[in-house]
Amino acid sequence: xxxxxxxxxxxxxxxxxxxxxxxxxxxxxxxxxxxxxxxxxxxxxxxxxxxxxxxxxxxxxxxxxxxxxxxxxxxxxxxxxxxxxxxxxxxxxxxxxxxxxxxxxxxxxxxxxxxxxxxxxxxxxxxxxxxxxxxxxxxxxxxxxxxxxxxxxxxxxxxxxxxxxxxxxxxxxxxxxxxxxxxxxxxxxxxxxxxxxxxxxxxxxxxxxxxxxxxxxxxxxxxxxxxxxxxxxxxxxxxxxxxxxxxxxxxxxxxxxxxxxxxxxxxxxxxxxxxxxxxxxxxxxxxxxxxxxxxxxxxxxxxxxxxxxxxxxxxxxxxxxxxxxxxxxxxxxxxxxxxxxxxxxxxxxxxxxxxxxxxxxxxxxxxxxxxxxxxxxxxxxxxxxxxxxxxxxxxxxxxxxxxxxxxxxxxxxxxxxxxxxxxxxxxxxxxxxxxxxxxxxxxxxxxxxx
Length: 450
Fold this sequence. Notes:
The chain is an alpha+beta fold. The protein has helices at about 15-25, 65-70, 110-115, 120-135, 145, 150-155, 160-175, 185-195, 210-225, 270-275, 285, 345, 350-365, 395, 420-440; strands at about 5-10, 30, 45, 50-55, 60, 80, 85-90, 95-100, 205-210, 230, 235-245, 245-250, 255-260, 260-265, 290-300, 310-315, 320-325, 335-340, 375-385, 405-410, 450.
């Protein structure tokens, strides 16, 4: 009897995770990726001699699946993780505030920080603490909570515009890729309960110290090869056809594979056009998940302007700014990446319009930028960075299992319970691998057809 065969379609974090899990179970795995690299939406590129990430990707200490993947890739030493949550918060004309955790158990670990949070008045700080306690009672699994807007819930709990911007939006916007007014209450509750209202250490922030492709492409390719996974780049799949004994997978390189199981780990809009009818997935529901963009501004100054590794902005168009100098060999504080989530307005702006708006805004936050010269300014735009975690989105997100045994779905858009993050992507890949392996045909597919 020949060995079982699996094909993973898509080489992002979900596909990498699914391929490694399948290979670990002794399955012969082929991974097909349409691009010339692995890593999906978390990758690097070279621009004018600068090795830049397409955007700033972070993880938290509570992201167990992603941190486990880093270990499997031998890349744990290529990231840094805060020993304790500490977010400098910048606002024009004011001294930096800080959101950081103390040593008390949750949710009291934030009490001292909120009590000293100078961007809010005393009554607003007390109101935020009360709302956090109330949010602990919201069940992220409740369909009624998913149908509600987080913004509506915040208004009902007396959270004014300043509190929404300085606390709820500061944390919720980059994790949900939507502003509170547009986001699902259930998804927001999952984010805050998991990161801030449970384990005190859960929200400690981590990020790559090297360009992302060092981890998600080069390290991943090396470990996949060691696991026996056959990786084919520039091999976009054009059709998945149920066939006797398994599936026939057609690729644009004019090759055809036969497999017992298939994991489809591509963005939801592409999956909608790729899945066979027999999978039982309503394509219109996938398309209704929509898209939410992220825009990143890359600014290289002639001198250091940022003293901290990163900072958040309040009462400014700057949302989050990161020092990415280390990955380029520049001195600390010179190469900044400004990450703009839920960036529909910025998506429509020209490079010059973005430059005119954001360079003065950075100078308002960073005194050293007033006298500094800008040596490079360029923009990366992720039009479909994530699905929209809007009210009702949870009901549209499919499970890993489909109606076809052996065909499983992966991607941060599937029903992981998490928003569209690196953690959600890895969790989805592992869930899809379990489904694909459990449902694989007892009689293995017989051949690979060229």
